[in-house]
Design goal:
Elements: H1 3-21, H2 27-40, E1 45-50, E2 53-55, E3 58-60, E4 65-70, E5 74-79, H3 86-99, E6 103-108, E7 118-122
Helix pairs in contact: 1-2
Length: 124
């Protein structure tokens, strides 16, 4: 499956979930439900995936974890916040760089309309 098809499936699943659950729940709730939705669509989903940090040639264990890696291609960071802040955007861009992935989605479920909470990022 092409990376654009994967990200399209993620967005579609997030919108479907949001229509069912609505805003205001904890991030972990959305993570569990989105992982379930994506697995129903036969996509491989890893949650709380370690993002390795190599500094000066050394692996540094600092416990960075991304919310989801879908089909080993798309990083998904989930939020349930009033506003997406620049630090949230910086976070996903850093994860894309660390994981050497091209596409990332930042999904904020604390919106009245899910489409307002979807942010797509490209590494490089």
């Amino acid at each position: 499956m092409h990376v654009n098809e994967i990200s399209g499936q993620i967005v579609d699943a997030a919108i479907h979930m949001h229509q069912t659950l609505g805003p205001g729940l904890l991030e972990k709730t959305y993570q569990a439900c989105l992982a379930h939705e994506l697995r129903k669509r036969s996509l491989h989903v890893e949650t709380e995936k370690e993002a390795p940090l190599v500094y000066d040639g050394q692996h540094v264990d600092v416990g960075f974890r991304i919310d989801m890696l879908v089909a080993d291609e798309v990083i998904v960071e989930l939020k349930s916040v009033e506003h997406v802040l620049p630090i949230h955007e910086a976070q996903i861009l850093t994860y894309l760089k660390l994981m050497k992935k091209r596409i990332g989605l930042l999904l904020n479920f604390n919106e009245l309309r899910m489409k307002d909470g979807i942010h797509r990022f490209i590494n490089g």
